[in-house]
Amino acid sequence: MAIQQEDADKREARLLKKKAVVDGRIAAATEERGVTILLTGNGKGKSSSAFGTMARALGHGHKAAVIQFIKGRKETGEQLFFSEHPQVSFSVMGHGFTWETRDPELEQKAAEQAWQLAREKLSDPSIHFVLLDEITYMYKYGYLEVNDLVEALANRPAHQNVMMTGRTAPRALLDSVDTHSKIADEKHAFKAGVKAQVGIEW
Ligand code: ATP
Ligand code: MG
């Protein structure tokens, strides 16, 4: 019984110590501004996390803009759902860039058009949340210049939040963002032979 009490006291002391650390961090985080968030890695969950965060922003009445830099074979659930939302402007990059057909000239043109739109959104103070989905591929394939993005992020309206996704990202972007999470591919159903499914994969 005495040993159990001692364990409980130690646990209580440990929790109090932890709480003091967390309270200290909360007190120290006083800066109010929008943030830039980058999600990379080979694991599943980058775009879906970004769209989940967008739903969170929309729930608070924020205005959002999405630009998808890769056009999939099928219309995605996120496009069908969010493009109906009155507070969302949803754009999918033109016909140039898809996983199935590769035409460098068309891809270049489509990438530039999508970037022009992204640049507009990144300078629009009425938009609280900007999602640049799969944008990092544009730098991997050399269609866009990463310094243009870094500059646009630095000059965006102070309250604007931006999320970006893609498997890998250039150093300049990694260095510039406020938050970067890398999702690891520990396991994926597809590798065990499970077919990609609607509502989960797209
Ligand atoms: P999601 O949109 O599901 O969050 P993602 O954005 O992290 O995925 P992408 O690299 O954009 O991943 O790939 C998009 C598609 O590939 C989705 O259909 C996703 O389910 C699937 N996918 C993602 N990661 C893996 C993986 N490690 N193995 C197999 N398929 C994957
Ligand atoms: Mg994705």
**Rg from alpha-carbon coordinates:** 21 Å
CATH class categorisation: Alpha Beta
For the record, the count of structural domains works out to 1
Uncertain segments: none
Largest sheet: 6 strands, parallel
Order of helices and strands: HEHEHEHEHHEHE
Tally of DSSP helical segments = 7
CATH architecture annotation: 3-Layer(aba) Sandwich
SSE-based structural type: alpha/beta
Which SSEs are present, and which pair or pack?
Elements: H1 2-28, E1 36-40, H2 46-59, E2 64-68, H3 77-82, E3 88-92, H4 104-121, E4 129-133, H5 136-140, H6 146-154, E5 161-165, H7 171-176, E6 179-182
Parallel strand pairs: 1-5, 1-6, 2-3, 2-4, 4-5
The structure holds adenosine-5'-triphosphate and magnesium ion.
